[in-house]
Design a protein that fits this description.
The complex is a heterodimer.
Chain A: H1 2-20, E1 54-65, E2 70-81, E3 96-105, E4 113-120, E5 126-128, E6 134-137, E7 140-144, E8 150-155, E9 159-166, E10 172-173, E11 179-181, E12 189-206, E13 209-224, E14 232-242, E15 247-255, E16 260-268, E17 274-277, E18 282-291, E19 298-307, E20 310-316, E21 322-324, E22 332-342, E23 345-354
Antiparallel strand pairs in A: 1-2, 1-13, 2-3, 3-4, 5-6, 6-7, 7-8, 8-9, 9-12, 10-12, 11-12, 12-13, 14-15, 14-23, 15-16, 16-17, 18-19, 19-20, 20-22, 21-22, 22-23
Chain B: H1 3-17, H2 19-58, E1 63-67, E2 72-73, H3 76-81, E3 86-98, E4 110-116, H4 118-121, E5 131-132, E6 145-148, H5 150-156, E7 163-168, E8 171-180, E9 190-194, H6 195-201, E10 207-208, E11 210-215, H7 221-232, E12 236-240, H8 241-284, H9 286-294, H10 299-336, H11 356-383, H12 386-390, H13 395-402, H14 405-418, H15 429-460, H16 467-478, H17 480-518, E13 523-526, H18 538-545, E14 550-561, E15 570-575, E16 588-592, E17 604-608, H19 609-615, E18 622-625, E19 632-640, E20 649-653, H20 654-661, E21 668-673, H21 679-687, E22 696-699, H22 700-714, H23 716-743, H24 745-753, H25 758-800, H26 810-836, H27 840-847
Parallel strand pairs in B: 4-9, 6-8, 15-20, 17-19
Antiparallel strand pairs in B: 1-11, 1-12, 2-10, 3-4, 3-11, 5-8, 6-9, 7-8, 13-21, 13-22, 14-15, 14-21, 16-19, 17-20, 18-19
The chains are: A mainly beta, B alpha+beta.
Chain lengths: ~375, ~850
């Protein structure tokens, strides 16, 4: 109940930055747009970028319990600049909001467990720090240690996790050295890097009981002020750690009238060679749809994705990985663990995100 | 023929023959029950709504932390959030902001603005979440937006997207109405803003009004509260929801209880009337009952007959009364509001809720009273020897037994004793009991008194001066009981009316006098916000005091203080007071230190009567008050009279206040015009100041007029109840006179036979009625005066903590007495016409 109300706001933000697009947001003179000439530098760019409207640290992964049961998890921290209260000296002034999102996919439960929280930055309760990844929302934290290990701790009433994620590969700068285009127009872009193949150890709590887990995860860090085309209807995205050590990310932004506004894919092999794919080289084809009993929305939970000559077959861990915040807003989307198959054989595991399928996907 | 049929016949016969009496009895029961029930309904509804509205503001928190002085440093917020055992923390800033253009109603010109952090409050007080326009969710945290409840929108006449101007200190704040508070209660006038925006825009940076806490499961609330209270120390109060409820209940308890008592008085008057009508009807049927006894009716059958009649009457009348009371309650809430026009629960729009249990209770009271009225005389009738009872004229002896003088005297003595007793749970319970006993005693004594007075008058009457007056006096002197009991109702209602009139006049005169004492200056100016800081900072004060045209300017700093979390806040006034003789500044009572005896090193405070009563402080005591950084010690230098703040107020020297707190701001300036300076000219000069438009300027004369107007409105309901009581009383007189004259048909026939004219018989009746009423009025006046003494000197100080001087509204009392006298005589006359219209011979024959 409480978290659903919280969902109100995160859903709004997601909508703002996904479907609604730029028009309303691009007008601020204080917030910067993403430009191709910027060179990402680390560790500085691990930290927050307060001059941009929206920023997120997004971690998904597959875990295995001691008795070899699979679990999917998703952890997201958002920083959102309200572009309000610039001159307000109050310590409560709502200049930045921190939004966090925790989800666990357990085939034994059969549907997604999820929690959302939103808090304004201030009083040390919530912040996204400059310089290195250090995000906090009350007692939910995500921090990058100097050795590159990430520490995540998120607990709610009945479930939660405490994980350490160790990098095994270098940072994967997306698109043009981290400048990631999201549409045909020059302003439609973000800064975007990923850390695939993070090695996970830690504990997952279900009904208050700790379970030791290990696994593989994927981290995305992306920031921008505006990047979606007003014509966009929603997006299909996935990121996957492949069994041979390579990393694959692909997305398409669907157009309202059908077809796609933009698409992109990148495949990096274990030795670090990147293959980038142009919009016309990337296709998403639904194989099987699932109708949500909660919202009646129909999702292409099983997909075929072509990147250049390669065809990937995405199969969900479970069908019901829908995130339903409909009681507070109209926003519903699907975010779930999937296995990738190539030529009929398992090739890796990742996370698929499907937005814009539940109608109406407009603001309340 | 079985008994049931017989019993039905008997009742039908009686009711058909005396339908007017039946009607009066039914009306009396109905009105008595209706008055009590409707006041109960209105009070309960208003109180429930008031407390529900207050509760919805604080949501579902377990504990609330307040500062004793209203506002406190926001650094407490992170400190509490990190506290063990705390699950949720909700910081709140709350201000009652004066709305420009609404100042004409002094009791009702503030808008409550609540500053919240929506991300924190939606888990504790979700009702306060504003509903913005589609796609404008960020309006909830914007720096220039406000969300209004439907009642507030209606009151301010704004809609979504309109701009709303409010005063903050000396500046104007413009806010955009971003949407509504759909879950606010009906009639609840509140506004919600982002806490950060509010701190900034209303110049309250760094402070909060309260912090609400929700504790983790399994944390012991009482233990946690005790621990937190210890940790936070003197400057803070940790309160539970129950304390809050207690505080709300305390706020309105005296008001509610007094109104309920008034309703009970109405019921009592009604009761008496029912009792007397029933008793009269049974006594009149004494012969009939004796006859039935002779014919073989048992005592028990007789009693059952009377009981059954009483039940039918009581249930019908009470049901009628419940319906009437419900309708009256709904109507008055619509017309006058839940506080019956007194502004006690401002902005509350309650819905009437019918509690079946309470309805049954009121039904029970109505029926019981009716039954008692019948059974007492019926018992007497069933015990009487049938042979004696069969004889005509035995009724009076029967009545005499109902009004034993020792009982009356016992009542009066007990009443006297009760006036010496202290309040119970801060309520004047014994005061009200004394009033009831005084009434019962007075009414029971009435027949003896009547007999004595008229016997004496008869004795002193010059021989045969006037046959009619002789006859009237003779009848009153020798048959006092029947007449007297008929007068009971009117005696009760008249004495209550006198009492209320004296009380209200005393109160009004005292208030008028007090107002002129507390508003000595010509003009009062104040700023619009009531935050932690007074609105006039030293630079603004300098501008004001530098204005020409004023002989004297006093600056006031007012503030709320919490002395006890279960009690409403008290008001602290810091202002120039004549330390040597405070009577020059304050409306002091006699309870004060002798002028000039305050020790040099003591900090004097002058407390209102309410403080003395509620907190037990006495003149000469050393007390601690949360003024300044620590709580300091003060000397109580005297008690002053305050009709403005029931919950208490304390006055201290402005210089002491500033030395203790370092707070140099003030809220109010009292300004005396120089000779020859016109008020309009002075106001124009004030408006010319840089902050002139944000000033609230009042004339003391207007303030006085307004206060008295509010006063009169508060007592409107009282007047209404009085009038109803008197009308019931008159109805009673009509009923009993008509019953008596019918019973006396034989007597009149006899009189006509021996040559008395019809006109003379009518004059006889009028004289009887007039004389009896005159005596009733005289006695009622004495009784009423006694009751008013109890109201003025016991009930008021004990429930509202203020004292007043006694003032009698002579002209009003006399005119009411005359009206009553004339109407009673006319009533007697009218009912008599019917009796003498029949055939003389038949009337006489009937007796034999």
């Amino acid at each position: 109940m409480q978290t659903k109300r919280n969902g109100n706001f995160i859903a709004l933000i997601l909508l703002l930055c996904s479907v609604l697009g730029l028009e309303a947001l691009a007008e601020s003179s204080r917030l910067k747009p993403a430009t191709p000439d910027y060179r990402l530098t680390f560790p500085l760019d691990y930290g927050a970028h307060e001059d941009f409207r929206i920023e997120w640290w997004y971690i998904t992964g597959w875990l295995e319990t001691e008795d070899h049961k699979p679990l999917g998890f998703q952890v997201t921290f958002f920083r959102y600049a309200t572009d309000l209260n610039h001159d307000n000296p109050s310590r409560f002034a709502a200049k930045h909001l921190i939004i966090a999102h925790l989800a666990l996919s357990d085939p034994a439960v059969g549907q997604l467990m999820h929690r959302e929280r939103t808090v304004r930055e201030g009083f040390g309760f919530a912040y996204a720090k400059h310089g290195d990844t250090d995000v906090k929302l009350d007692d939910w934290t995500l921090m990058r240690r100097p050795d590159g290990h990430y520490q995540v701790e998120m607990q709610d009433d009945d479930f939660g996790l405490r994980l350490t994620l160790a990098p095994t590969q270098s940072v994967m700068l997306q698109d043009q050295s981290g400048f990631s285009r999201k549409g045909p127009k020059p302003g439609q872009a973000s800064y975007y890097y990923s850390e695939p193949h993070l090695s996970v150890t830690g504990t997952v709590f279900r009904n208050g009981k700790p379970v030791a887990v290990t696994g593989r995860a994927w981290l995305d860090h992306e920031w921008s002020t505006a990047y979606l085309d007003p014509d966009a209807d929603g997006w299909d995205w996935f990121g996957a750690n492949l069994d041979d050590g390579s990393a694959l990310m692909a997305f398409q932004i669907r157009a309202k009238q059908g077809g796609k506004v933009w698409a992109y894919a990148a495949l990096r092999d274990a030795s670090g060679n990147m293959t980038l794919f142009d919009p016309e080289q990337v296709d998403f084809t639904p194989v099987r749809t699932w109708r949500s009993p909660h919202t009646d929305a129909v999702y292409p939970v099983e997909m075929r994705t072509r990147t250049g000559d390669i065809e990937w077959h995405l199969v969900p861990l479970l069908d019901d990985q829908e995130l339903d915040a409909r009681q507070s807003t109209a926003t519903v989307y699907w975010e779930g663990a999937v296995t990738l198959h190539r030529n009929g054989r398992p090739a890796g595991r990742g996370y698929l995100e499907l937005t814009g399928y539940a109608k109406p996907l407009s603001l309340e | 023929m079985n008994t049931a049929t017989l019993s039905r016949w008997l009742s039908w016969g009686e009711w058909r023959a005396h339908w007017l009496q039946l009607l009066v009895a039914l009306t009396a029961i109905a009105i008595g029950v209706a008055m009590a029930f409707s006041i109960h309904l209105i009070n309960t509804a208003a109180f429930n709504e008031f407390s529900a509205a207050s509760k919805s503001l604080s949501g579902q928190s377990d504990l609330q932390v307040h500062g004793r002085r209203g506002f406190f440093d926001e650094r407490l917020y992170p400190q509490l959030a990190g506290h063990d055992g705390v699950l949720l923390v909700n910081p709140v800033l709350e201000l009652d902001v004066i709305v420009p253009g609404k100042q004409q109603n002094r009791n009702d010109h503030r808008l409550k603005i609540i500053g919240i952090d929506m991300f924190r409050s939606m888990r504790i007080a979700p009702d306060l979440l504003g509903l913005p326009k589609e796609g404008k969710t960020l309006d909830r945290v914007a720096e220039d937006t406000v969300f209004l409840s439907p009642a507030a929108m209606e009151w301010l006449q704004v809609r979504q997207d309109d701009l709303l101007q409010l005063h903050a200190g000396l500046e104007t704040v413009t806010l955009r109405v971003a949407g509504g508070l759909v879950r606010a209660r009906a009639g609840q006038r509140i506004a919600v803003m982002d806490i950060g925006a509010m701190q900034w825009r209303f110049q309250q940076l760094g402070v909060l009004s309260r912090i609400e806490l929700k504790l983790r499961d399994g944390v012991n609330h009482a233990a946690f509260k005790a621990q937190l209270t210890r940790e936070l120390g003197d400057a803070f109060i940790v309160a539970e929801q129950a304390d809050q409820e207690q505080r709300i209940a305390n706020m309105s308890r005296a008001y509610r209880v007094n109104l309920n008592m008034l309703a009970l008085v109405a019921l009592f008057t009604g009761t008496f009337l029912v009792f007397s009508t029933q008793a009269l009807s049974v006594v009149r049927r004494r012969q009939q009952f004796a006859l039935l006894r002779v014919l073989g009716f048992t005592r028990r059958q007789l009693l059952r007959q009377v009981t059954a009649e009483g039940l039918v009457l009581g249930i019908t009348g009470s049901l009628l009364g419940l319906a009437l009371g419900y309708a009256a309650a709904v109507l008055s809430i619509q017309l006058l509001g839940g506080d019956l026009g007194t502004n006690f629960f401002p902005g509350v729009k309650p819905g009437i809720h019918l509690d079946p249990f309470m309805a049954l209770l009121f039904l029970g009271v109505g029926v019981t009273v009716t039954l008692l009225g019948g059974i007492v005389p019926a018992l007497e009738a069933s015990r009487a020897k049938p042979a004696l009872a069969l004889r005509a004229g035995s009724e009076d002896t029967a009545m005499a037994k109902l009004s034993a003088p020792w009982f009356a005297l016992a009542c009066l003595a007990t009443a006297l004793a009760f006036t010496r007793l202290p309040p119970v749970f801060e309520l004047p319970v014994f005061g009200y009991l004394a009033i009831a006993l005084l009434l019962i005693g007075g009414i029971t004594l009435m027949p003896h008194f009547t007999a004595r007075v008229f016997a004496r008058l008869l004795k002193h009457n010059p021989d045969n001066a006037n046959a009619v007056s002789m006859l009237a006096l003779a009848r009153l002197a020798h048959m006092p009981n029947q007449s007297a009991i008929a007068l009971g109702g009117i005696l009760a209602s008249f004495s209550l009316m006198v009492a209320m009139a004296i009380m209200v006049t005393s109160f009004r005169v005292s208030i008028d006098h007090w107002l002129s004492q507390v508003l000595p200056a010509d003009l009062y100016i104040r700023t619009a916000v009531s935050g932690d800081q007074g609105g006039f900072q030293p630079d603004a004060q300098q501008l004001i005091t530098a204005l020409p045209g004023f002989e004297r300017i006093d600056l006031f700093r007012t503030q709320s203080l919490t002395l006890n979390p279960q009690r409403p806040d008290i008001t602290l006034f810091a202002r120039p007071v004549d330390r040597a003789d405070p009577r020059n500044t304050l409306p002091m009572t006699d309870d004060m230190l002798a002028p000039g005896t305050i020790p040099e090193n003591a900090i004097p405070v002058w407390i209102s009567e309410a403080i003395a009563d509620l907190y037990g402080y006495r003149t000469g005591d050393r007390i601690r008050l949360p003024v300044g950084n620590a709580s300091n010690e003060f000397l109580v230098a005297g008690v002053w009279r305050d009709y403005g703040r029931q919950f208490g107020a304390v006055q201290m020297l402005l210089s002491d206040y500033q030395a203790l707190t370092g707070d140099l701001s003030v809220n109010t300036a009292a300004m005396w015009l120089r000779q020859g300076m016109a008020a309009d000219q002075a106001i124009a000069a004030l408006r010319q100041l840089p902050f002139g438009s944000a000033l609230e300027i009042s004339h003391s004369s207007e303030m006085r007029a307004l206060s008295l107007e509010i006063f009169d409105r508060s007592f409107a309901v009282t007047y209404l109840l009085e009038i109803i009581a008197v009308v019931i009383g008159l109805l009673g007189v009509a009923a009993s006179f008509s019953a008596q004259t019918l019973a006396r048909v034989k007597e009149f026939g006899m009189l006509r036979h021996i040559g008395v004219l019809r006109r003379q018989i009518l004059a006889l009746l009028a004289a009887e009625g007039g004389l009896l009423t005159a005596l009733g009025i005289a006695l009622g006046f004495v009784l009423g005066w006694g009751i008013s003494l109890i109201l003025v000197f016991i009930v008021n100080p004990q429930s509202f903590h203020w004292t007043m001087q006694l003032h009698l509204p002579w002209s009003w009392l006399i005119s009411i007495a005359v009206i009553l006298l004339v109407s009673a005589a006319l009533t007697a006359l009218l009912s008599g016409r019917h009796a003498v219209s029949g055939q003389v011979t038949r009337a006489v024959r009937e007796d034999w």
